[in-house]
Design a protein that fits this description.
Layout (H helix, E strand, L loop, with lengths): L4 E5 L3 H11 L7 E5 L2 H11 L3 E4 L8 H11 L4 E6 L4 H9 L4 E4 L3 H13 L4 E2 L7
Helix pairs in contact: 2-3
Length: 134
């Protein structure tokens, strides 16, 4: 069984812990790393070259969109799945343009996190059904 390196980036300790605990339910998802701001996310992505990065948009220092752009340069093979409160069509389109493989809303994470992670790791895209214009 292949194991995957995953980087979870969120400035909320509580939400980050929810995501980490959810991921650790699966044997192949044990290599989990954390970051709490956009700058740290870019540094950790460059250092770890994770398979998947779960990225919030509203981050301190560097927002998630800009962090995603920088991550694309330092770790181009990492897949990005946005997990965020931000649901505006413009932001979703910006995320897609930088190469995000998925986008889910935090409000739906309890139900959509694992299906989204599975889809993205398998090379498919996953977007919250509640997103406008998708």
């Amino acid at each position: 069984m292949q194991s995957y390196k995953i980087l979870v980036v969120d400035d909320s300790d509580r939400f980050r812990q929810f995501v980490v605990l959810s991921l650790r339910q699966r044997a192949e998802l044990q290599l989990i790393y954390e970051a709490s701001d956009g700058l740290e996310a870019v540094e950790r992505a460059e250092e770890l070259k994770p398979h998947l990065i779960l990225l919030d948009i509203g981050l301190p220092s560097v927002n998630g969109i800009e962090a995603g752009r920088q991550i694309r340069k330092v770790s181009p093979n990492s897949k990005i799945l946005f997990v965020t409160l931000e649901s505006s069509a413009d932001v979703v389109q910006e995320a897609l343009q930088l190469g995000a493989r998925g986008y889910i809303l935090k409000a739906d994470a309890a139900r959509e996190l694992m299906p989204a992670v599975d889809a993205v790791l398998q090379g498919r895209q996953y977007f919250s059904p509640r997103l406008p214009g998708i």
